[in-house]
Amino acid sequence: MQRRKFLKSSGLFTAGFYCLRLPAIAGPFHPSEFKGGVAPADKHLNPGWISSIMERGQPTLYRKSKDELKYIGMPVGGITTGTVYLGGDGRLWLWDVFNRNPQGIIPKTLEFEGEKIGSTSGAAYVQPNLPNSPFYQEFVIKVSDGNNTISRSLKAEDFTEVIFAGTYPIGTVTYEADDLPVSVVLEVYSPFIPLQEDDSGIPVTILSFNIKNKTDRRLEVVVGGVLENASLLHKDEGGRRINKRIQVDNASGVLCSFEPSDEKFSKMPEYGTMCIAALGTDTKSFVNLDAEECPEILFKSGPGDAVAAVPAKNLLIGGVRKKIDLGPGAMANCNFFISWHFPFTELKVKDAAEGNYYTRRFKDASDVVRYVALDFERLSSLTHAWRDTWYDSSLPYWFLDRSFANITTLATSTSHRFGTGRFWGWEGVGCCEGTCTHVWQYAQAMSRIFPSLERDTRERVDLNLAFDQKTGMIGYRGEGTGAAIDGQAGTILRIYREHQMSADHSFLQRNWARIRKAIQYLLDHDSNNDGLVDGSQPNTLDAAWFGEIAWISSLCLAAWRAGEEMAREMGDITFATLCKERFAIGKKNLENQLFNGEFFIQLPDPSLPKRPLGSYKTCEIDQVFGQSWAWQVGLGRILEKQKTMSALGALWKYNYTPDVGPYIRDHKGGRPYALAGEGGMLMDTNPHHATDPFGDDISWQVGYFNECMTGFEHQVASHMIAEGMVKEGLVITRTIHDRYHAARRNPYNEIECSDHYARAMASYGSFINICGFTCHGPKGFIGFAPKLSPEEFRSAFTTAESWGSYSQRRDRGQFSAKLEVKYGKLKVKKICVEPDINHKVRSATVMLNNRRLSCTITQYETVCEILLDDSETIYNGQYLTVNL
After folding, report:
1. What is the rounded CA–CA span in Å between residue 838 and residue 305?
2. For residue range 59-96, what is the model confidence (pLDDT) as tens digits?
3. Tens digit of pLDDT for each residue in 658-679?
4. Residue 782 has pLDDT above 80, yes or no
5. Could you say which of 2.60.40.700, 3.40.50.300, 3.40.50.720, 3.90.180.10 is the CATH number of the domain covering 801-883?
6. Which helix (H) or strand (E) holds 555?
7. Boundaries of each Glycosyl-hydrolase family 116 catalytic region domain copy (predicted)?
8. N- or C-end of the chain: fewer Cβ atoms within 10 A?
């Protein structure tokens, strides 16, 4: 077929293995240090390396000359609209926008250590995917000075050097060639505006070219793009492909569609439209370009026909070009759009029959272009404003990259939004359905960036479709599924978080009766009222565990504390007291019975003849997960500090290793999410050589214990940061970052049981904790207690209705802070900050712009609480300052 011939010659990369050792961060080690079933106690970390990862550093750049571009795939489509990747050299690839939901972004099976593994078992980790596309699409540039003409395709092969900067949501590609008289910088993105899920969920990719004349001559520059008609891409019969020239407001281009001969084709997932267009004037559109001469013919052809139609089996390529006249040293910008509109999904889920949410807003791909073109200045400027706010920080560049990288999961086919408005997610692309509570509870990113999506999911799904009115059970995979105790507890904590990320009390008030019943469900799973849940405890490790389990009970303790806080706000003192009392006895028993003097463990169920799968006397990664969650939602300390710190210290000592190679060599089983030569935190280790450490009647899930899964690792790292173990937390985070270095694999695809795994969005929790950020929208409370460089600190923040930047300085008894709102509005009644430990605060001056605000101050331990006499609202462009 002609299409296959063309794609074969289009210059896209082909798959293959690649292995690289980055510069050593630790060592040397003696073989004996890896014996005994645990990680080496002494990590032999390079002090210079540790120092470097805690510094601000430089923006991350990946280069063609260092062979660092070939795995990059930054998602650059709208959230919940499918997956479009930006490659390291500026080409767009993957294009999983056709509602097919494959298992893994590119399903594959390969041989690894004598076994066949697939997309849910780490195949894409072992053999990273390389750019390919199901259809043809390309951008080109032509430069002429009247005498000489140079043409280039925007791809690595056509330039001496290509540099990629992945400051999500904007990927920037710089092209360098000595013989090209212009410099070319390409920015690629889809509108991404925190708190605006609709305008962040537009099915469009924007390619913005910034071109500068490097000479003293006047130049004519033409930039163009071509796009194959991909509607019903794999249909060779049953209709016609149609390309139509369009003019929509301030943009012109080509709409690609399919005219079916049978109505049944119009309900298929791949049926829909795509559009390529350019913003502004001086553009020309082409509906039928010759495949054999493409893309050069784009520069030669006149406009031609307004419409082209060919049989379904034929290749049909449209294109658009834009001309720019550049004087000596002048610079110009031109913007292109590629949009898509494929309404129908094959997902067998309630609400999925309503199609994709974006089809409620747009009638076809040209309507998408119309919307973006009409409001381009706002959409673009706010996207850039967020990117600039996020990176205008005192935090290390690499940390900002890694902690935010996994929000891209929302812009992949892991994440869906149906026509009813319902958000729905796989665990990872095409794998394990139902916005699973015990996986998605780890994810901290969406609630802080798009809080209304999370609130709606709690209300529409967890407290409605998935809710058992009789028992209070929340089905862990949405409608029609059973219980997961960890997921139930985590969802109660998420409900409390969503309440805090609300502007008022209405969310809590509307849902309190069901929230109360969901909390009661956990209370009822403590059969003897000792504060430790018992009986069957299904959980995220895909088995029902039994006995008294530190990590699951700690989650329940945190949920009961959140329940107490919510009950008090609702005036339900009886239930608040019940939660408080059960928490108190549970805290005492967990600390006394499940702490072995070094870390927290699991006690077996004495009623069972054999111990089923569990962690028992081993060192399990989530053992103090409840305390980790408590820091995320401002509950403070729920477990004794000394024992919590001992448990985290044990995880560092026994589970973290700079090289997993010796461990996985001696411990068979588990999926390859970290390879020899790479570091990571192991899920569960047996430091005291317990016999049958994981039970007497173990099952296949025991293989999980030998793995390194980033969502769990991020959870521990964020907890360590919250507790002041900043070095250890950053080392774990950087270890993950290095595993996903672009020279090794795609930096934007943290893998666990398929690609773009939702649990990895736990990485945002590390950002929350390194800022010491807390908030409570209905109470008008916001607080910061930075854990890294608090003497001179700056970071972004988001609340229910605003985002902006917080900065502080403290030195020798002086403290000043500034809260700038850059979008929306922020209601403030109380502010908490953390002056130097020896700073005894005598007075506070609080200013809203130039107006002084009356307040009272309270200082306890290291925290200074500033209570304003009257609630104030800080609007976009305003700022509040504090001087102590």
Report:
1. 77
2. 999 999 999 999 999 999 999 999 999 999 999 999 99
3. 999 999 888 888 999 999 999 9
4. yes
5. 2.60.40.700
6. helix 550-569
7. 486-764
8. N
Distance of CA 188 to the CA centre of its chain: 18
What is the DSSP-derived secondary structure letter of residue 654?
I
From the options 2.40.128, 3.40.50, 2.60.40, 2.70.98, give the CATH code of 70-98+134-385: 2.70.98
pLDDT at residue 36 in the model:
74
For the chain, give the mean pLDDT.
Answer: 95
- Cα–Cα distance, 491 to 147 (Å, whole number): 67
Residue with tokens 């590119």: 106
Q: Which residues contact 16 (CB under 8 A, 6 or more apart)?
A: 127, 130
Other CB atoms within 10 Å distance of the CB of residue 504: 12
Q: What is the CA radius of gyration of the chain?
A: 28
Is-same-fold flag (393-771; 801-883)? Answer: no
Query: In Å, how far are 22, 61, 64, 180 from 161, measured between CA atoms?
Result: 21, 12, 6, 12
Whole-number Å distance between alpha carbons of 836 and 875: 30
Q: Which long-range contacts (CB under 8 A, 24 or more apart) does 464-470 make?
A: 465/350, 467/514, 467/518, 469/514, 469/517
Evaluate if residue 474 carries a pLDDT over 50: yes
- CA distance linking residue 723 with residue 769, whole number of Å: 9
Query: Helices 710-722 and 763-771 meet at what angle, rounded to 10?
Result: 10
Pair of tokens at residue 281: 């004037």
Q: Supply 446's token pair.
A: 């969406």
How many of the other CB atoms lie within 10 Å of CB of 47?
A: 7
CATH code reported for the domain at 393-771: 1.50.10.10
CA-nearest of 394, 391, 397 to 791 is 394
What type of residue sits at position 366?
Answer: S
Between 378-387, 668-677, 758-767, 774-783, the lowest mean confidence (pLDDT) is in 668-677
Chain centroid to Cα 390, Å, comes to: 14
Contact in structure between 44 and 383 (CB atoms under 8 Å): no
Task: Map tokens 């149609």 to a residue.
Answer: 242
Report whether 508 contacts 524 (CB < 8 A).
Answer: no
Distance between CA atoms of residues 129 and 853, nearest Å: 56
Contact 801, 874 (CB under 8 A): no
Give the integer Cα–Cα distance in Å for 494 and 633: 9
CA angle, residues 747, 749, 753, in degrees to nearest 5: 145
Structural domain spans, the chain: 70-98+134-385, 393-771, 801-883
Q: Confirm if 279 and 250 have CB atoms less than 8 A apart.
A: yes
Q: Which pLDDT band holds residue 741 (cuts at 50, 70, 90)?
A: very high
Q: What is the DSSP letter of 688?
A: T
Q: Which residues contact 216 (CB under 8 A, 6 or more apart)?
A: 328, 329
